[in-house]
Amino acid sequence: MSPNRQLVATLGVIDALLLFFLVNPWFSADQVSDTIRIITTWAFWILFIAIVVLMFQERNNSGATEVQVEGPAFARFLFSNTQAGWFWLPIRLFVGFSWLEAGWHKLAPTDGVWGKGWLDGGTALQGFWTNAVAVSPEGKGQITYDWYREFLNVMLTNQWYVWFAWLIVFGELLIGLGLITGTLTGPAAFFGALMNSSFMLAGSTSSNPVLFTMAIGLMLGWKVAGYIGLDRYLLPLVGVPWRAQVQTAQPASAPTPSTT
């Protein structure tokens, strides 16, 4: 095992222990001070990002392209065969039009004002965040995780809703257009799932669980989900299918025979 893989394994174990400390049902992290809980949460995410970076660096090492577990034939067809593009097409269109409608609803003029409540100061988003972070006298709120409540409070305090509202409106429009036309379907589905996760973390259910589940499928089938669309022509232009430059050991040279 390479030193890089050993480090990933070590950090993975530590990260798993930190996560166990935060979410286990037997010993609540709430029983310790807020400072320790916040430090543990930050340590978990920092280690998680470090693991991802190290794994990304591992892609060029020998053995990085080995198939460890062979998937069933149906899964290979669904996620790797271009004919499966017809299966993903209606899913892609459904999710795409849902995002496009959501973005257009925020952008469309109301009382003659384009993007009212969103592009004119973000008051609509401010209200959403304010309601999300609210906690009742009984200590109940819409947000389950304290770290996410603290994150929204930071954005509220710094008035980030002013520019974040623009990001949401045009992000939803771009995600919708990308999925409908099959343009970079994988990244579009990823950012859609990221927004779904953000809304659900803030306590908003609505259609987010359905869209999130479908987006996961589109991400898994990113190679073929947009084949009935512009990805058929775009992905080859950006180098898909990719071939990793795997480092291989050089064969040892044969010894020179003696002339004596």
Q: How would you describe the overall organization of this protein?
A:
The protein has 10 helices and no strands. The radius of gyration is 24 Å and the shape is flat. The protein has 260 residues and is an all-alpha fold. Among the domains are: 1-59; 73-115 and 164-238, no CATH class. 60% of the residues lie in helices and 0% in strands.
Secondary-structure blueprint:
Blueprint: H1 3-23, H2 34-57, H3 73-80, H4 85-107, H5 123-133, H6 146-157, H7 161-181, H8 185-201, H9 208-220, H10 231-237
Helix pairs in contact: 1-2, 4-7, 4-9, 5-6, 5-7, 7-8, 8-9
Helix content: 55-70%
Helical element count? Answer: 10
User: Beta-strand percentage?
Assistant: under 5%
What's the overall average pLDDT, rounded?
86
Number of strands: 0
Summarize the biggest pleated sheet: none
Order of helices and strands: HHHHHHHHHH
CA radius of gyration? 24 Å
Question: What is the distance, rounded to the nearest whole angstrom, between the alpha carbons of the first and last residues?
Answer: 43 Å
Shape field: flat
Unreliable stretches (pLDDT < 50, length at least 5) are none
Classification by helices and strands? mainly alpha
